[in-house]
UniProtKB/TrEMBL annotation:
Active-site residues, record numbering mapped to chain: D61 (proton acceptor)
Signal peptide: none
Family classification: Belongs to the NAD kinase family.
Protein name, entry field: NAD kinase
EC numbers for this chain: 2.7.1.23
Pfam families on file: NAD_kinase, NAD_kinase_C
Annotated catalysed reactions: NAD(+) + ATP = ADP + NADP(+) + H(+)
Species, as recorded: Mobiluncus holmesii ATCC 35242
Length: 284
């Protein structure tokens, strides 16, 4: 879903968020700050807690996901400039930075909403911790020498259990990330679904599963597990999952918002970012 956004407010505040130590990102951030300030826009960095309109992110997908955590709290969109590797979530490349700044100053961008997931970890003592993720959550063993012993069910019904390095639950947005690297399916971002993919599982039923948006996925850390597990949200935020914990994953009630300059079909983004061979398509 896209929302057209053209802003005419006289008082605007935008956050510029860059990769911590990559010099090209630091230099680009200074350039963006100068451009926006010359246009009369207040610019803040990642340490600010004041209300903002938008976050401009300079870095790779990891930096965009880091900034998305701030955007999630404020309910604002992010727009990324790829200074990393694949940059699947980014809207522009480094050479397009000037055009992006011009469009942001004019307030000409669309907002694309992406499904997120919520996760709750219920510990054996009854305490509960929660997180959210735009890309994925990964349930991983803290013991690198032994697999995690996990069972999972959907909508209150047991489905399977096995030993594995872990389980990945991704959104459609995250289906091109960790899920993709373990052989999971690519899911178009306008599809509402949860994707469950085992990581190096030992068992006969180890295929990825695509669940409906109303599904309630429950993952149990079995008591015979050697060491505790951890739940990683977007590869950055960690929740402990001791032996006997239950992990509940559902579609989030809030979305991630990505600012877009052009309405490009996902198939075109997929081909561009992965460099897919399309020379024979329709006689090219």
């Amino acid at each position: 879903m896209h929302e057209r956004r053209i802003l005419v407010s006289k008082e605007r505040t935008i956050m510029v968020f860059h990769h911590h130590y990559r010099q090209p990102a630091i230099v680009a951030a200074a350039s963006v700050r100068g451009y926006l300030e010359n246009a009369g826009i207040t610019v803040v960095d990642r340490t600010s807690s004041e209300p903002i309109e938008l976050i401009i992110v300079l870095g790779g997908d990891g930096t965009i996901l880091e900034a998305a955590n701030i955007a999630h709290r404020q309910g604002v969109p992010v727009i990324g400039v790829n200074l990393g590797h694949v940059g699947f979530l980014a809207e522009a490349e480094e050479e397009e930075l000037g055009e992006l700044c011009e469009r942001v100053v004019r307030g000409e961008y669309q907002v694309e909403r992406r499904m997120c997931i919520d996760v709750e970890v219920r510990h054996p003592d009854g305490s509960v911790q929660s997180e959210w993720a735009a890309n994925d959550i990964a349930v991983l063993s803290t013991d690198k020498g032994h697999p995690a012993l996990l069972a999972f069910g959907v909508d209150g019904e047991a489905v399977s259990e096995y030993g594995a390095d872990g389980l990945i639950v991704s959104t459609p947005t995250g289906s091109t990330a960790y899920n993709f690297s373990v052989g999971g399916p690519v899911v178009w971002p306008d599809v509402q679904a949860l994707v469950l993919s085992p990581l190096a599982a030992h068992g006969l039923f180890t295929r990825s599963l695509v669940l409906g948006p109303s599904s309630v996925l429950e993952i149990q850390v079995l008591p015979q597990q050697v060491q505790d597990c951890e739940v990683w949200a977007d590869g950055r935020r960690i929740l402990p999952a001791p032996l006997g914990s239950s992990i509940r994953v559902t579609k989030s009630t809030t979305d991630m918002q990505l600012a877009r300059l052009v309405s490009l079909p996902f198939s075109a983004r997929l081909v561009k970012k992965f460099g897919l061979p399309v020379e024979g398509w329709r006689g090219r």
